[in-house]
Structure formats: C-alpha cells, structure tokens
Design brief:
The protein has 101 residues and is an all-alpha fold. The chain has one domain: Tetratricopeptide repeat domain (Serine Threonine Protein Phosphatase 5, Tetratricopeptide repeat). Helix content is 80%, strand content 0%. The protein is built from five helices and no strands. Helix 1 runs antiparallel to helix 2, helix 1 runs parallel beside helix 3 and helix 3 runs antiparallel to helix 4. It is globular, with a radius of gyration of 15 Å. InterPro entries: TPR-like_helical_dom_sf. This is Tetratricopeptide repeat protein.
C-alpha cells in the first residue's frame, strides 16, 4: 500500500512539475522533463500528454502528433481525447498560419 501511494505521489509530483513549467512558458524545460518522465513511466498516458503539450507550446505540431500516436499504442482508449485535441490544435495552427500576400 505504501509503495503504491509513493508511486502515485511521484507521478503526480512529476505531472505538477511539467504543468508548472508549461504555465510559466518554459516549454523547452517542460519538454525535457516530460521526456525524462516518459523514459521512467512509458505506459502512463499522462506522460505522453505532458510531452505533447510541450511540443504544442513550442509549435512542434508534427512532434506532438508523433507522441500521441505513441500514446495510442499504450492506451488505445485515449483515442477520443487524442482525436479531439488534434482537431483543435490543427484548427488553431491552420488559423494562425501566415497568409499569402
């Protein structure tokens, strides 16, 4: 029981760290923290979401999509969230793309 609680605390702490970095606009630091987290817990969906969000903040849409493809390999039940998020992000990137003169 204690080991399970400690494990839960560790991932919640890591998730908070990445979220705080993202909120502070420290996207590159968040990206590297999320990459370390995925290396430690590759089957936890939250790790993939954290890295995808960091890529998104950095404007790296292709990398975010790749991370989410990996998420679907370990957690296929996340498809509805992935599809919804990608649709939103692709719309935003399309709307913010420079227009031809």
């Amino acid at each position: 029981m204690l080991k399970a609680n400690l494990s839960t605390f560790k991932w919640q702490s890591r998730e908070s760290e990445v979220d705080d970095l993202l909120a502070a606009g420290q996207s590159t630091s968040a990206k590297f923290a999320a990459m370390e987290w995925i290396a430690q817990q590759p089957r936890r969906p939250e790790t993939h979401w954290a890295l995808a969000k960091a890529h998104y903040q950095l404007g790296e849409l292709a990398a975010a999509k790749e991370v989410l493809r990996g998420l679907l390999q370990v957690a296929p039940d996340e498809r509805y969230r992935v599809d919804d998020w990608l649709s939103h992000v692709e719309d935003e990137f399309r709307d913010n793309r420079p227009k031809l003169a």
